């Protein structure tokens, strides 16, 4: 008989240790250590004797069928999925509290019900009365035909779903589901992973498409074990600031399409509204030349988004000048400031620096380095950059400006929006464009060509 060993595991991060502790050794959470029994394992010889031979097939003998999707008729959501929902797939939708996950799920149900798709909505957080109030706000009669299951017992949900056989199963949310066969309270690692495994198995065996709504931690990750993201086919994050109407839906994992796709929504009183042309949302309708403002074109997945970056530099009265950034990485800002001081010979070390990306957009790609630097130089010298100019480029530590990817798509978008000039890296291959190109090789050349300073 195999010996049983005792191990201790954190219910928050799944870190394990040989001894009990009041505080987790990894995530520092208090009161999360649980005792678990671990078998010593079976010898290899016994395992080989107990196992049965399985059938091995050649890949060429597998019949290749094109994946059939059904569209939600919400183009921004379908874009992130790669064209629509795949039957039998599991989609994990995560986001901060109040960002609009349940509203988006209800709007997906609303759109599919109009196409006569059978949907089962499992309500683990809200009562049917609360869901009806939300449906009335969306003002659609089709939602009155939505089937609601107000239950958090996993076994009841599995049995009901297998009997109903819906085309789409929506779980709101996975952290509220309780599995009587697993240890722990709802939301714990054991409960979340066990419930998710059973639900994904149900989706695969009964060919039911499923949307799991998940909470996120304060660090911005899906609450529960990381294994949860490995179980599902698609992982989507719904992002947005609490006091901003903008919502970005990002695909970080997709077995049926590309990743890093982005859908853009605007939260309104009637729910989530699609933004077909995000550039209009991030650009001022009355674009004018102002000191401290620069325009750029960034890539969000496969789409180009034009936006405005604003900078304000003012003489600091503090021993350590302040650096504040909204929508742009603060560490990247420090890097650009160091380059401007070293290679641009600009006195930015004595300035308070404030950076803002208009519209609540968050920028992470290096192609935005050049417009950020341009806006700061403009504010420092109190000299406006022409509103006809857009800039893209990555800044290196030696002050050089490096080429960016997918330049032709960026150029086409800014040309369509009415811009006439573009500041680009000297080594950039522009292809065919009607834009007037201003090539700059480094920071000094940028300052000289745009501001007339040597």
From TrEMBL:
Going by the entry's taxonomy, the superkingdom of the source organism is recorded as Bacteria
Matching entries from Pfam families are given as: AAA_25, ChlI, Zn_ribbon_LapB
Motif extent (RadA KNRFG motif): 253-257
Q: Where does ATP bind?
A: 95-102
What is a biological process (GO) this protein takes part in?
recombinational repair
Q: Where is this region: Lon-protease-like?
A: 352-454
Question: Which is a Gene Ontology cellular component entry for this protein?
Answer: cytosol
- PROSITE patterns given for it? RECA_2
HAMAP family on file: RadA_bact
Domain remarks in the Swiss-Prot or TrEMBL record: The middle region has homology to RecA with ATPase motifs including the RadA KNRFG motif, while the C-terminus is homologous to Lon protease.
Its family remark reads:
Belongs to the RecA family. RadA subfamily.
PANTHER family found in the cross-reference section: DNA REPAIR PROTEIN RADA, DNA REPAIR PROTEIN RADA-LIKE PROTEIN
Q: Under what name is this protein listed?
A: DNA repair protein RadA
What is the native source organism of this protein?
A: Candidatus Doudnabacteria bacterium RIFCSPHIGHO2_02_FULL_46_11
């Amino acid at each position: 008989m195999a010996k049983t060993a005792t191990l201790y595991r954190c219910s928050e991060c799944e870190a394990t240790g040989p001894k009990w502790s009041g505080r987790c050794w990894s995530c520092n959470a208090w009161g999360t250590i649980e005792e678990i029994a671990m078998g010593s394992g079976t010898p290899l010889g016994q395992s080989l004797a107990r196992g049965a031979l399985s059938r091995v097939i050649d890949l060429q003998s597998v019949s290749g069928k094109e994946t059939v999707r059904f569209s939600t008729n919400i183009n921004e959501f379908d874009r992130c999925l790669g064209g629509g929902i795949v039957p039998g797939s599991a989609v994990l939708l995560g986001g901060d509290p109040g960002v609009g996950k349940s509203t988006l799920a209800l709007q997906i149900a609303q759109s599919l019900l109009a196409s006569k798709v059978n949907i089962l909505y499992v309500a683990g957080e809200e009562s049917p009365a609360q869901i009806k109030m939300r449906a009335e706000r969306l003002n659609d009669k089709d939602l009155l035909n939505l089937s609601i299951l107000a239950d958090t017992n996993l076994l009841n949900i599995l049995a009901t779903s297998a009997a109903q056989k819906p085309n789409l199963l929506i779980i709101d949310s996975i952290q509220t589901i309780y599995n009587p066969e697993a240890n722990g309270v709802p939301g714990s690692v054991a409960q979340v992973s066990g419930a998710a495994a059973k639900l994904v198995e149900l989706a695969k065996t009964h060919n039911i498409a499923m949307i799991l709504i998940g909470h996120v931690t304060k660090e911005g990750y899906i609450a529960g074990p990381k294994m949860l993201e490995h179980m599902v086919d698609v992982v989507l994050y719904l992002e947005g600031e609490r006091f901003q109407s903008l919502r970005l839906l990002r695909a970080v994992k997709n077995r049926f399409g590309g990743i890093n796709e982005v859908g853009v929504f605007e939260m309104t009183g009637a729910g989530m509204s699609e933004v077909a042309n995000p550039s209009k949302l991030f650009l001022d309708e009355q674009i004018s030349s102002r000191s401290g403002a620069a325009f750029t074109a960034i890539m969000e997945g496969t789409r180009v988004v034009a936006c405005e970056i604003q900078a304000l530099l003012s003489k600091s009265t503090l021993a350590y000048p302040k650096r504040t950034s909204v929508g742009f990485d603060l560490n990247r800002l420090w890097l650009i400031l160091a380059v401007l001081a070293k290679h641009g010979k600009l006195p930015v070390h004595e300035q308070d620096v404030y950076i803002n990306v208009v519209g609540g957009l968050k920028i992470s790609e290096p192609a935005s380095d050049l417009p950020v630097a341009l806006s700061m130089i403009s504010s420092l010298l109190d000299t406006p950059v022409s509103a006809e100019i857009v800039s893209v480029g990555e800044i290196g530590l030696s002050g050089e400006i490096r080429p960016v990817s997918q330049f032709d798509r960026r150029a086409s978008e800014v040309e369509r929006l009415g811009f006439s000039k573009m500041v680009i890296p000297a080594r950039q291959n522009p292809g065919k464009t009607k834009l007037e190109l201003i090539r700059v090789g480094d920071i000094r050349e940028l300052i000289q060509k745009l501001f007339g300073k040597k």
